[in-house]
């Protein structure tokens, strides 16, 4: 039997500078301040878009609300804060276009705001605690200001989800800390 067989595994070193934690450092179990509330990161998701390009999403909860924080680093860090929508709140023509043409309309009016399709992406999704990735298609929409955001996702042949929210600067999130264990 090799020496050290029963030794406790060495704890992984943090992947961030503990004196300067950024949005890209967030992981499940962290807390942060956003929009005058303190949020806990309760779930962590990973999106694989191919060509070694990954983005992340975090489920944020507080006493009375749940949000999803999407984080992507391309030339700069882009953050989207969304709430999931009941699919029934989407206009019927959106689902009809998806089923008949394989993609949603170029323009969607939701809650009086006009959103324009910006991008279509095929990728793979997983909850970080799972090893299995699920394929899906995503469509991103922005309004004229490019601050308001709407996304539609297709899972399988006829399963759809939607979310609506805003694009936020990285500076909108503060006091990012890991919860001590």
UniProtKB/TrEMBL annotation:
Residues 28-166 form the DUF4178 domain. This is DUF4178 domain-containing protein. It comes from Algivirga pacifica. The lineage of its organism: Bacteria, Pseudomonadati, Bacteroidota, Cytophagia, Cytophagales.
């Amino acid at each position: 039997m090799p020496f050290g067989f029963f030794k406790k595994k060495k704890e992984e070193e943090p992947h961030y500078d503990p004196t300067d934690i950024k949005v890209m450092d967030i992981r499940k179990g962290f807390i942060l301040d956003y929009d005058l509330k303190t949020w806990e990161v309760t779930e962590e998701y990973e999106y694989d878009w191919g060509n070694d390009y990954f983005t992340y999403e975090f489920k944020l909860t507080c006493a009375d609300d749940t949000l999803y924080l999407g984080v992507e680093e391309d030339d700069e860090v882009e953050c989207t804060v969304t709430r999931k929508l009941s699919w029934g709140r989407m206009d019927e023509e959106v689902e009809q276009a998806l089923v008949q043409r394989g993609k949603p309309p170029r323009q969607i009016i939701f809650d009086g705001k006009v959103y324009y399709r910006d991008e279509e992406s095929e990728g793979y999704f997983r909850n970080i605690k799972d090893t299995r990735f699920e394929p899906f298609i995503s469509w991103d929409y922005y309004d004229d200001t490019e601050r308001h955001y709407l996304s539609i996702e297709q899972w399988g042949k006829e399963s759809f989800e939607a979310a609506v929210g805003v694009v936020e600067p990285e500076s909108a999130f503060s006091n990012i800390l890991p919860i001590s264990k």
